[in-house]
Amino acid sequence: MTQIKDTAIEPFLDALASSAATPGGGSAAAILGGMGAALVSMVCNLTIGKKKYADVEGDMKDLLAKAEDLRHRLTGMIQEDVRAFDTVMGAYGMPKETDADKAARDAAIQDALKQATEVPIRCCRLAREVIDLALTASEKGNLNVISDAGVGVLSANAALRSAALNVYINVKMISDKSFTDGKLSELENLLAGAEATTEKAYDIVKGKVS
């Protein structure tokens, strides 16, 4: 089967708009993060090799390597989100005729929900990294494409906040409080400062283009 990440934009958007449960918001969040990372890479690629920016070339090469790694990891999460959702739906579809059936079904649902929570929390981690990279790109990148660093940081922030919603919706259905408390604590740490970093990068870019 063709991987979602390998399909053209229009067919993907058609699938996203359809009545099918997947792909959904989780896949969209991963794409937003991947777009943010790709835009950071673009700024790097159009800065590296330019005499005017020779003093930051080493920094931009390092930034490019990190952005490309994050881009590939985020696009890989598009399909991971679909698989996680399908696993949850499969667990809910298990038989519940006997007490043993019900116990097995409940255990499978809880396990599937935990797996489904791990995907968006990973997306949040990666998106948070992209935000930091976009800030550096906005500070050091080629002025001719600096607006793309701004779009990149906004895309990454949207990815972070979007994926966070999927964490919130899953943990409320998980009975293991130690697990949910841990994930929510990590999520709050990831969100903390992200808005300020995003606004800082945006203001830097706005100041350079206006």
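The above is record 1. Record 2 follows with the same two-line structure.
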Amino acid sequence: MANYIQEIRALVGHKPIILNTAAGILVDTQQRVLLNLRTDTHNWSLPGGYLEYGETYAEACIREYQEDSGLKVKISAPIGIFDRGETAYPNGDVAQTITQLFLVQAIGGQILNQATDETLKLDYFDFKQLPPLLNQQTADLIEAGHQFITKA
């Protein structure tokens, strides 16, 4: 079922809803994390997004990562599920997101070099010098990913 979120929003409007999301954390050789600058909120997040109806978290992570970054990835490991976090979007939509975070590895594609409908740009950041993030859940995801990577 394509455009599942749009169909749900057509039924409920801006009413707060619970949505499932998947995100991936990818680090470069300098141990910096790849983030995307979002078109909707103009702040940074991990590549990822909402599950479409019938998708698994892993399938959504792989699809969304390529859409948001241009990179084809494979799942290296699940990191955890994060269920605290609410996002209020500029269009008035509000959602509590339940996010499955994965460690991912690039296996193809190229980082986008132009803006898309969801990503303005991409960049790698040091874990200790992050730009303005989407919300607290994004900060929690990045911190958990950093802890997972440093313990590996």
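The chain has a mean pLDDT of 94.
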